[in-house]
Design brief:
Layout (H helix, E strand, L loop, with lengths): L1 H25 L7 H10 L1 H35 L1 H14 L8 H8 L3 H25 L3 H9 L4 H23 L1 H14 L10 H7 L4 H29 L1 H4 L7
Helix pairs in contact: 2-11, 3-4, 3-6, 3-10, 3-11, 4-6, 5-6, 6-8, 6-9, 7-8, 8-11, 9-10, 9-11, 10-11
Length: 254
């Protein structure tokens, strides 16, 4: 926690320095200072809190759905050689395709409601989970599987006691790395697919709604950064709880 607070302090100092340099070089305020932005956030705390809560819930739902759909698929494709042979090319073809490029078609398919905003974020996170799970499951040590099979384990038990524990650390690490991408897609979904909504309908919509009020808009940007940090920390804590063995004897472990 102390490290995060220190990092925030460094960011605020850099932010203040850049704001001052821009104002001196351009002769007017370009980037609102941290204290001006904080004052704007306090003045609009109700709307900002509503936007933050909406975005947090939206991202949480998308993350859970991406895991529920992507983890089993990735594990199966990576562990089962036949599925790997036939489905991997399809996954590698679809993985680089940015969901933002499909906004028009997603809009036509799902309308402008909540579903389409969730779909955009889920699509971004889904392939991150699938590819991470597939890669980890593909290189599980064969002797581990043989040992469990020799004890009479069923297919389900192999996945439960070997495949999942062996791949979960890699999947959670990939999920933490993909938080930044997910937040970016969340912002795009809330701005491009939320033009008719009010500023409390998500941080992306909050930022766009106050485009011509730099201090308030920047408060929304800070909110997005804090939202990303929140989920990064949650996933890191989840990894420490679910994958305790990974941290035994490691630097910072127990």
């Amino acid at each position: 926690m102390l490290n995060y607070l220190l990092a925030m302090a460094v960011v605020v100092l850099l932010w203040a320095g850049v704001s001052w340099l821009l104002e001196v070089s351009r002769g007017r305020e370009i980037l609102p200072t941290p204290w001006v932005t904080f004052a704007a956030a306090v003045d609009n705390i109700g709307t900002l809190a509503s936007a933050f809560g909406t975005s947090a819930l939206r991202f949480l739902i998308a993350l859970v759905v991406a895991f529920l759909l992507g983890l089993p698929l990735g594990l199966a494709v990576g562990f089962e050689s036949k599925l790997d042979r036939y489905l991997s090319p399809l996954i590698y073809l679809l993985y680089p395709m940015p969901p933002v490029a499909l906004l028009l078609f997603l809009y036509l398919a799902f309308g402008l409601g909540e579903v389409v905003r969730l779909v955009v974020v889920v699509m971004a996170l889904f392939f991150q989970v699938v590819v991470a799970a597939q890669g980890a499951a593909k290189y599980i040590v064969p002797s581990h599987v043989t040992a469990v099979r020799s004890a009479g384990a069923t297919r389900w038990q192999i996945y439960r006691h070997v495949v999942l524990p062996a791949t979960l650390p890699s999947v959670l690490t990939a999920a933490r790395v993909s938080v930044g991408l997910g937040i970016t897609m969340l912002y795009i979904a809330e701005t491009k697919l939320g033009v008719l909504l009010g500023p409390g309908a998500g941080l992306g919509r909050f930022i766009e709604y106050y485009t011509f009020r730099g201090d308030i808009s920047l408060a929304g940007v800070v909110g997005l950064a804090l939202l990303g940090l929140l989920f990064y920390v949650v996933l890191e804590l989840g990894e420490r709880v679910l994958c305790r063995w990974k941290f035994v004897g490691a630097r910072g472990g127990t």
